Amino acid sequence: QVQLVESGGGLVQAGGSLRLSCAASGTISNTDAMGWYRQPPGKPRELVATTTSGGNTNYADSVKGRFTISRDNAKNTVYLQMNSLKPEDTAVYYCNVRRRSYYGPYDYWGQGTQVTVSS
């Protein structure tokens, strides 16, 4: 079983920065992907960024060049550095661990942390 705890959300002005952290308890395999998703008000959850234990990363087009995902495998922690924030980045941000299994991928989710960007 994996439990995820996010921290670092808050209120920031447009153009500002925030850093989200997500600490995972339990066993994290080197085949597990870790990442961040977000759910803006009234919209479905969407991918922000993911990373593998080997450092391969994937970003949503809307955040490329502004957000950076990183992972500390020794600490089972994933980070999201968010720069040049825009009001449209306002959302609840969720940490995710995606685990491969014989039956298909399985997702673990954190409780979410609110990010609000004021104009």
Instruction: Work out the radius of gyration.
Output: 14 Å
Count of strand segments: 11
Work out the helix count: 0
Stretches where pLDDT falls below 50 for ≥5 residues?
none
Q: Kindly, what is the distance between the CA atoms of the first and last residues, rounded to a whole number of angstroms?
A: 40 Å
Mean pLDDT: 95
Overall SS class: mainly beta
Beta-strand content bin: over 45%
Helix-strand topology string:
EEEEEEEEEEE
Proportion of helical residues: under 10%
Describe the structure.
By secondary structure, the chain is mostly beta strands. Helix content is 0%, strand content 54%. It has strands spanning 3-7, 10-13, 18-25, 33-39, 46-51, 57-59, 67-72, 77-82, 91-99, 106-109, 113-118. Strands 2, 4, 5, 6, 9, 10 and 11 form a seven-stranded mixed beta sheet that branches. Strands 1-3-8-7 form a four-stranded antiparallel beta sheet, with no helix packed on it. A hairpin with a 6-residue loop joins strand 9 (91-99) and strand 10.
Task: For the structure shown, list the relevant keywords.
54% strand, mainly beta, 7-stranded mixed β-sheet, globular, 119 residues
